[in-house]
Amino acid sequence: MRKSSRLILALxxxxxxxxxxxxxxxSGIVDAIxxxxxxxxxxxxxxxxxxxxxxDVICDFKVADIPNTVRxxxxxxxxxxxxxxxxxxxxxxxxxxxxxxxxxxxxxIYAVTEMSHPGGKEFTAxxxxxxxxVGVDCDVAGFIAPATRPERIAxxxxxxxxxxxxxxxxxxxxxSASEAIKAGADYVIVGRAIYKSENPxxxxxxxxxxIKAVL
Length: 215
Description:
The protein is about 45% helix and about 20% strand. It is α/β, with parallel strands linked by helices. The chain has an eight-stranded parallel beta barrel with strand order 1-2-3-4-5-6-7-8, surrounded by seven helices. The chain is globular and about 45 Å long. It starts with 6 loop residues before the first strand and ends with a helix.
């Protein structure tokens, strides 16, 4: 995945035509497009392949299952063109290691340490450091840490070294792109603030410039 603007679009638009139009409009600005179940369920898994024509695609499936099921999900995502898959670390090291193995040299795995919404403080936050260490032990490429709580990004960074951090929660959830980058994030993830705007490209450029100003 390229590292230019440090901006990733979370494309949770459920209308296929709109989603593709938005992807095309921000192509060249965002470093990747992250998709989740809403778009896949409304438009089909072939959206992974279609979007990959515009940008690297991160499948944010937050996989949390036994190793065999994890393997099947990762393999199918990669076969359709995914550059990365996001999985949960809490199912344990065997499932996480299987995700890394299934991705092989065709894609990378990002592990969730802590969710960005308020409920993330209940269960993921108290265990985030431990989950980060499991990810390091299983050799994942990077981690998800919340832009809504920049101090938590710094805490995860102290454990994972130079592995990548992707930070969601910028925009609608109240997180700041610049603060997340300053806290140690490699990329920020922005969704509704971009794809629900009247001019997604202009908003993406604005956020990219905000990030550039603190690098």
